Amino acid sequence: MNRRPIQRGNCTASWIPISLVVCTIIAVAIPSAHSATDDRPNFIFFITDDVSHNDLGCYGNTAIKTPHLDRIAKEGLVFDNAYLTISSCSPSRCSIITGRYPHNTGAPELHTRLPDDQFSFPIALKEAGYYTALSGKHHMGKAVNRGFDKVSNGKGPSKAGDWVDMLQERPKDKPFFFWFASSDAHRGWAINDKAPTYKPKDVIVPPFLVDGEQTRKDLVGYYHEVSRTDHYAGELIKELKRQGVADNTYLIYCTDNGRPFPRCKTRLYDSGIKTPLIVWCPGKVKPGRTSSLVSAIDFSATILDLAGLKRQPTIQGVSFAKILTHHEAVTRDFCFAEHNWHVYQAHQRMVRTGKWLYIKNNYPDRQVLCKESDPTFPAGKELWEAHKAGKLKPAQNDIFLKPRPKEELYDVTKDPYQLHNLALSDGHDDALKKMRTVLQQWTDQTGDSVPDNPTPDRDTIDGKRIKGWKHREFPGKSKSATTINHTGPVREDPS
Fold first, then answer.
1. How far is it, in rounded angstroms, from Cα 180 to Cα 160?
2. Rounded distance, CA 475 to CA 447, Å?
3. Within the chain, how many helices (H) and strands (E) appear?
4. What single-letter DSSP state applies at residue 40?
5. Where does the chain hold its CATH 3.40.720.10 domain(s)?
6. Could you report the per-residue pLDDT of 415-461, keeping only the tens digit for each?
7. pLDDT value at position 235?
8. The predicted structure's pLDDT at residue 495
9. What CATH number belongs to 42-333?
10. What pLDDT, on a 0 to 100 scale, did the predictor assign at position 35?
11. With 0-12 CB in 10 A as exposed, 13-18 as middle and 19+ as buried, what is 466?
12. How far apart, in whole angstroms, are the C-alpha atoms of residue 388 and residue 331?
């Protein structure tokens, strides 16, 4: 072995291998990607469970108390047109974490796990030297765990009780990405001291629900849990500031689907498919609001972009990073969403562009239901009772339609609840033609399909499990959609 003496003053040190000297010099000359000087941005992805977009103070709800989120909204950017790809818990989360449409993930129905061969964006962050951790509601399958250094089930009724501890205990020599998944505001309601309580007389009942005693009491529990997400948002911001990393941490607040009430969760109206979205990072995000369209599949591309990483070829979303500083920027002209099996059989598709929202119903002979629509829940019970008594108003009759219209078209600027189907009236041929064409293009390019052997209803309308039930053919299966990476239409054709 080659050796050389190391001189220190007038003394000659012990013989040390040249290879060790070279390695030491290299280690000093090239700072570790995990060193304390790493100034790459941090991320907290705060995803709530079953919260509609207009149930926060910053989105216009004057009855619900969300002071921390309202302050974050003033300091950050509020998105007024952010859409999910599906209004159903597990497929929505699998879509977000992969940046792919549900029928492309291999997990397009409720309670289906993400396949092992599907990429999730935390993997790229972890491989790039980020410390990655997940806490709270999981619901995506074990394959997702390989993208995280730590996975926790969370603590407390919200599953948010260990979040601050995890922030404090993280490695301080790495940038971090936390996927914090609250179980609020999923049924059943769990009241505690982390949020205010409400009175039935104070809640706001949307026009598609019965304004009755049972529904108002039901909304009281929901309001409490939405406010609890606000409490933990405040705790996270407080801890980020205490650690001195607030100005280098993006906090992204959103949901997986709409509120767990009739005509909301699972549905393709704004009450089900439109997510609240606030992005906060002092000094890096320009405060304000934006009307630009963004999709939940864009979160993956955006976070990787902000982290200085390339978008993976499997990601179908696009980065909206430039909107964070230029609110008028446009990164997409179309948002697409799907409604697949969620306890009850379904196959609907949606496209939103400009002022139009279009829905195609591929099972028009079926009643469109979800668990929150049935008479086992208070708001659903009151709705069914009013239906049997013949006391429903037209706006409250939606879930009872059978057959349903094959097509629905709404002007969301004039009809925020999507109650007036313009596809049934004259004068909208051009809009219908455009929306049909764009949706068909998306269907073809992403490999969507209507199953020949679809998953049947799992429960009866009163909640009893049907014997012998199992998942069957998934949408996209016949076209090998899990191998397709096409984004579908994103921008208008300039021609």
1. 7
2. 9
3. 11, 18
4. P
5. 42-333
6. 999 999 999 999 999 999 999 999 999 999 999 999 999 999 999 98
7. 98
8. 52
9. 3.40.720.10
10. 43
11. exposed
12. 47
CA distance 293 to 285: 17
Closest alpha carbon to 57 in 269, 235, 226, 251: 226
Instruction: Give φ, ψ of 305 to 5 degrees.
Output: -60, -50
Confidence (pLDDT) at 494: 65
Contact of 256 with 45, CB cutoff 8 Å: no
CB atoms within 10 A of CB 140: 28
CA geometry: angle 349, 182, 293, nearest 5 deg: 40
Phi, psi of 124 (to 5 degrees): -65, -40
C-alpha angle 234-235-238 in degrees, rounded to nearest 5: 85
Helix axis angle for 213-243 and 378-388, nearest 10°, is 150
The reported pLDDT for the residue numbered 75 is: 98
426: helix, coil or strand? coil
**Residue 83 contacts residue 295 (beta carbons within 8 Å):** yes
- Using CA atoms, how far residue 343 sits from 85, 87, 188, in Å, is 18, 13, 17
Cα–Cα distance, 31 to 174 (Å, whole number): 12
DSSP reduced 3-state for 179 = strand
| Chain centroid offset of residue 239 CA | 24
Kindly state the tokens that stand for 237.
């911001």
DSSP 28: H
pLDDT in tens, 268-278: 999 999 999 99
Encoded tokens for 271? 């009450």
Angle (CA) 202-203-207 rounded to 5° is 135
* 219 to 63, 211, 254, 263, 381: CA distances (angstroms): 11, 11, 20, 14, 13
Environment class of 373 (CB within 10 Å of its CB; exposed 0-12, middle 13-18, buried 19+): buried
CB 145 within 8 A of CB 167: no
- The segments of the chain whose pLDDT lies below 50 read 1-36
- DSSP assignment of 240-253 equals HHHHT-GGGEEEEE
Residue 127, Ramachandran bin (φ over 0: left; ψ between -120 and 50: alpha; else beta): alpha
pTM: 0.91
Q: Residue 374: what pLDDT? A: 85
**Residue with tokens 């709270």, as numbered in its chain:** 136
Is the N-terminal amide bond of 147 cis, ω within 30° of 0?
Answer: no
Mean pLDDT over each residue of the chain, to the nearest integer: 92
Find all residues with CB under 8 Å of 345, minimum gap 6, and list them.
Answer: 363, 366, 454, 455, 456, 457
* Residues 6+ positions from 125 with CB-CB distance below 8 Å: 43, 132, 147, 177, 303, 304, 307, 309
Write out the two tokens for 420: 């007036």
